[in-house]
Specification:
The protein is mainly α and about 100 residues long. The protein has two domains: about 5-60, 434 Repressor (Amino-terminal Domain), CATH 1.10.260; about 70-100. It has six helices and no strands. It has helices at about 5-15, 20-25, 30-35, 45-55, 60, 80-95. Helix 2 packs across helix 3.
Amino acid sequence: MVDFGQKLKELRRERGYTQADLAAKLSVTKSVVSYYENQERVPSPEVLMKIADIFNVSTDFLLGRTREFKILDVSDLNEDEVKAILMVAELFRKGRGDSR
């Protein structure tokens, strides 16, 4: 199981961010990002939410509570459009025998 610090480091590297880049986006120092990645500090709930927003992942994903990676932003879709997306997702799950 991958810990928070490792996930943060992987996400940061995938985006091509340095620790200093991420620190600037979070309004913290580079040292603080290093502490997070090395599991020497835990981010506040506010910083955790910022990290989730920056990398477009859920806080549950960052904390290892779910395997879900990406968040699908449906905020600008109407109810029928959201239902259609959920139906397509369900078809994919049934196709691989993973209905939830």
